[in-house]
Design a protein that fits this description.
Blueprint (H helix, E strand, L loop, with lengths): L2 H33 L8 E4 L3 E8 L13 H21 L7 H24 L2 E9 L4 E2 L5 H18 L19
Antiparallel strand pairs: 1-2, 2-3, 3-4
């Protein structure tokens, strides 16, 4: 990878990570300012029976995992910091930045980790506010935020990248009579 290509990947990664974290933190601040803290006001319906703004605090990880663990916010903040260091190391020391999909996926994961880590360190919990539910079929998703979305999209991109067909290193032999690979 050329020096110019590495610089472009750094810029892309930083734009995704810092821009995504800034977007997440800005939306959290705006929604909590407008809607108020949890249980202080009725949720704001965006699509009746499906989508609303409802503030919530989550001291744990995804779906509240580990919320009752002592010092859960600090533990998850430390895990986010360790993950961030590992991501930067994998991308720019380990060479994963040679792959555009990996750079994008890890930039999104870093954005989500930074947004939620900030909340944990500053507030002692993560601020969530998007409540997706489909009342007609009794479906109710955990309340989440945009950092969570970036983490999930980044992780799904990593999974899809890992599952993609690998190019074969074996040379293809072609039968000269049928022009078909053998």
């Amino acid at each position: 990878m050329t020096t110019r290509a590495k610089a472009i990947r750094w810029i892309l990664f930083l734009c995704l990570a810092l821009g995504g974290a800034a977007f997440d933190l800005t939306t959290k601040s705006l929604i909590f300012e407008k809607v108020g803290p949890p249980r202080s006001a009725a949720p704001v319906s965006l699509i009746p029976g499906i989508l609303e703004l409802q503030t919530s605090y989550n001291p744990g990880a995804l779906w509240g995992f580990g919320a009752s663990m002592p010092y859960s916010s600090l533990v998850f903040a430390l895990l986010s910091i360790v993950a961030g260091i590992a991501i930067v190391g994998w991308l720019f020391i380990g060479g994963a930045a040679a792959s555009l999909p990996l750079t994008i996926a890890l930039g999104l994961i870093m954005a989500g980790a930074m947004g939620n880590c900030y909340d944990r360190l500053v507030y002692g919990h993560v601020r969530d506010f998007v409540h997706f539910h489909v009342d007609s079929i009794n479906f109710d998703c955990a309340i989440f935020n945009f950092a969570d979305n970036m983490l999930v999209v980044g992780a799904l991109t990593l999974v899809l990248f890992a599952l993609r067909p690998q190019p074969s290193d074996e040379p293809r032999v072609i039968d000269s009579q049928s022009a078909e690979p053998v």
